[in-house]
Amino acid sequence: MDPEIYPKRALISVFNKEGVSELASFLSGSGWEILSTGGTSKYLQDKGIGVTDIASVTGFPECLDGRVKTLHPAVHAGLLARRDLPSHMETLEKLGLGTIDLVCVNLYPFFEKVQAGLTLEETVEFIDIGGPSMLRSAAKNFKAVLVLTDPADYGEAIEGLKGGLKNLPDPLRRRLAGKVFDLTAAYDAAIARYLLDLNGDQGAAGPRADQVRSSELEFPPFWPLSLKKGGTLRYGENGHQKAALYLTADRRGALGGMEQLNGKELGYNNIRDLDLAWKAVSAFGFPGSGPGYPSQAAGEAELKRLLPDLPEEKQRVCCVAVKHNTPCGIALGSALPEAYEKAYACDPLSIFGGIVAVNTRVDAGTAEKLAGLFLEIVAAPDFEPEALEILKKKKNLRIMRASGAARETLECISVDGGLLVQEADRDLLDKWDVVTRTAPAPHDIPDMIFGMRAVSFVKSNAIVVIKNRAALGIGGGQTNRVWAAEQALGRAEGGAAGVLASDAFFPFPDVAERAAAAGIRAIVQPGGSMRDKESVEACDKHGIAMVFTGTRHFKH
């Protein structure tokens, strides 16, 4: 059989019908035989395009409710046979099989269905087997077989085929084959993540609280990632660096669920800051709609167990200001104007050019204040119509409406040649151990708890000075804890009778001494240093209350 003169055949079997009739019409009009299956066959025939049913090629009927249609040697031999090897072509001729020269396949919508809250049995039915198998066979033999997975490529394929299949440039064939393995890798990763429960069993309603706690999590031998390009960014962290955004294909995170209502495109640094800010406000919950982080409910239960007399927090509205990927203001209030004013007061200088995120609807009054600043982003669950109108007057201000809380239970950090994977930091504290002669005043305890939540979002070494559920001063990203404390206390203008929270223990009494000099009444920290006693003694000397929580919150 001469590979240059045998009839050309295309196998088309698609779930997404976009553009497929135009492709099939071109091929049919160019003398190609169209092989197809099930719904695609009917669709093309309804469009007046002649189709050969795949069963007439395999000699085997579709069976098992469509699970077996194309898993047959007549299909895969036709795809995998090397046209440049006479032995392969002779084998096809001896077996009475023909080649298949183009494959157009897209897959069952597992990415979408895994997010739809279906049962395990229902979700498994959307795992495509035949489609990926055909794509992989065709892509392996890309020098002879043109393979299409994306309707966006149909037009280029049609133009190229006008010059004949053999004249298609090798770079195009190779790129389209690469897209196959790019797709199937992400598709298989999504299936693996689902079956391994690496998404916390996220369905339409998100992960169940009892599954988010991953104390029994087994990290698999290979780490599956399923990411889809969300867009090319203008540049990366700096202007000379190229960058792109990839969003999880198998679950919708907070960023993927945000709608941009105004302003320029988001940049690399914008996205990093937005991610941190939204995680921070999510950690304080959403007034009227329950917890933010999926595991926050468990954290609240632990608080009530350790502090049964702790009153319910009445200041639920949270405002976070972020600059250079660390908070420069964070506060709670009974309403947004109060929360915003308190967050702004923490560092009125650094908020300039930063971003602001809140966990409640933005009102017109707060919008007026936000519009009076130069901000990169304002993010909220919603905006009053008048507030939106006010903010939109700032044409470059990015306005982001979020559809839900941050919910990732695992986080990844790239390293050169690998990936670090860990559970997200959701545990607030393990104990409430008063280690000084002086106990915290009841009205200071809510501030101490607020401080431990806030400090977990500040770069280590991290110190936050708090009063009335607001950060008065934030010190972070320092190479020693004393500098962080001096920054936080200095910015808090002494912290007049406030409380101090630390992300880690005090190995020396120096921070406690500085806190005492600034008028701090209570300190909350993890404890665990070999020299804890020295800090406790310093607090006792100055009448400061100190609590150990047993949980550190490093953030590097």
Total number of helical segments? 20
Mean pLDDT score, rounded?
88
Enumerate the spans where pLDDT stays under 50 for 5 or more consecutive residues. Answer: 201-215
Bulk shape: elongated
Broad CATH class of the largest domain: Alpha Beta
Main sheet characteristics:
6 strands, mixed
Record field, number of beta strands = 21
Number of separate domains: 3
Please give the alpha-carbon distance between the first and last residues: 64 Å
Broad structural category: alpha/beta
Kindly report the CATH topology of the largest domain.
Answer: Rossmann fold
Radius of gyration: 30 Å
CATH superfamily of the largest domain: Methylglyoxal synthase-like domain
Describe the overall structure.
By secondary structure, the protein is α/β, with parallel strands linked by helices. It folds into 3 domains: 9-196, Rossmann fold (3-Layer(aba) Sandwich); 252-410, Cytidine Deaminase, domain 2; 427-548, AICAR transformylase, duplication domain (Cytidine Deaminase, domain 2), CATH 3.40.140.20. It has 20 helices and 21 strands. The strands form 5 sheets. A 6-stranded mixed β-sheet has the order 8-13-12-11-9-10, with helices on both faces. Strand 20 (522-525), helix 20 (532-542) and strand 21 (545-548) form a beta-alpha-beta unit. It starts with 8 loop residues before the first strand and ends in an 8-residue tail after the last strand. Mean pLDDT is 88; it is low at 201-215.
